[in-house]
Model the fold of this input.
Amino acid sequence: MIVRKTLLAASAIALMSTPAWALPSQAPSNQGTKHAPSTTPVGPPSTTPNNTDNPGSANRHSKGNAGNNGTSNGSGQGNRNSTGNPNKPSHPGHPSHPGHPGKSHKCMAHNVAYIVAGTLVSQTLVENADGTYSGDVTVDVTRTNRHAAIDQGATMTYTLADARVRFDLVDINHDGSVGLDDLQAGDRVKAIGTITTLAKKCSQSGFTATTTIRRIVFHMPAPAG
Done:
């Protein structure tokens, strides 16, 4: 018993006296924070896939290249229509219809302004219930617009139907109103209306112009001199 205790004590003293450099080395505790030296070779990248043992990587590589080439598979033709012509609309089932040509109105009768002025020869006007007048007015025409130029210098009779009449006259008969009973030959007349016409280049065969007087204004004769 005494011998065993003596051996244990001697062993402990021997361990304590052993230098630190003689102890077995240990791996550092922070191995995860340091980087291992790189073994990647220097130079241009290799065209050989990294994982040659995996056949799936080669298949993915070939399919990916084919998918990127839009002209070598069907996906690259997705913007084309079924006829193969990119200039045609994408909905060929709805063709456009040409518009119908418009009808020309050049050779259709139309109204233009008709204005004459002159002196009153006679009249047979009658006042209507609504205040308009109907009847005939005969005028020595002295002035016209261009559409009534054919009447200038002539004595013309105009037939009125529901026309408006204004009397810029004096109360000659002193009855307290100015109207038809104050008209006299020689009073000035201005007739305003419309006349139908055709363009000069159109055929005039069978066409007769129609004059419509819408309004007449009567004035006192012009002062002498």
About this structure: Residues 116 and 144 are 4 Å apart (CA to CA). The longest strand covers residues 110-123. Residues 70-76, 99-103 have pLDDT under 50 and may be disordered. The domain at 110-219 is CATH 2.40.50 (OB fold (Dihydrolipoamide Acetyltransferase, E2P)).
